[in-house]
Amino acid sequence: QQLHLTTEPGASETNRASRRHPAFRVASVEAMRAKLERAGVEIIPGNVFPGQKRFFVRDPWGNRIEVLAP
């Protein structure tokens, strides 16, 4: 697998419009959400899927990142 993150000029706007993203599975979505909120990270709600909890965040360059747990 490969992970491509961009940091070149103008990447934030390009990445903000993109739906491509990596996903990270965590033990507790609630605990990760609380930790990120305390750090001032904007939480972006995701579509609801049965049996899965998830949300999205953006890194400092605008890359979309999914956080999920079954």
Walkthrough of the structure:
With 70 residues, the chain is α+β, with helices and mostly antiparallel strands. The protein has helices at residues 11-17, 29-38, and strands at 23-25, 44-45, 53-58, 64-69. The longest helix has 10 residues, at 29-38. The protein is built from 2 helices and 4 strands; from the N terminus they run H-E-H-E-E-E.
Outline of the structure:
24% of the residues lie in helices and 24% in strands. It has helices at 11-17, 29-38, and strands spanning 23-25, 44-45, 53-58, 64-69.
Please outline the helices and strands.
Blueprint: H1 11-17, E1 23-25, H2 29-38, E2 44-45, E3 53-58, E4 64-69
Parallel strand pairs: 1-4
Antiparallel strand pairs: 2-3, 3-4
Largest sheet composition:
4 strands, mixed
Give the averaged pLDDT, no decimals. 85
H/E topology pattern = HEHEEE
How large, in whole angstroms, is the Cα Rg? 13 Å
Distance between the termini: 22 Å
The total strand number stands at 4
**Strand order, biggest sheet?**
1-4-3-2
The number of helices is: 2
- Portion of residues in helices? 10-25%
| % residues in beta strands | 15-25%
Task: Kindly name the structural category.
Answer: alpha+beta
- Overall form: globular
Low-confidence stretches: none
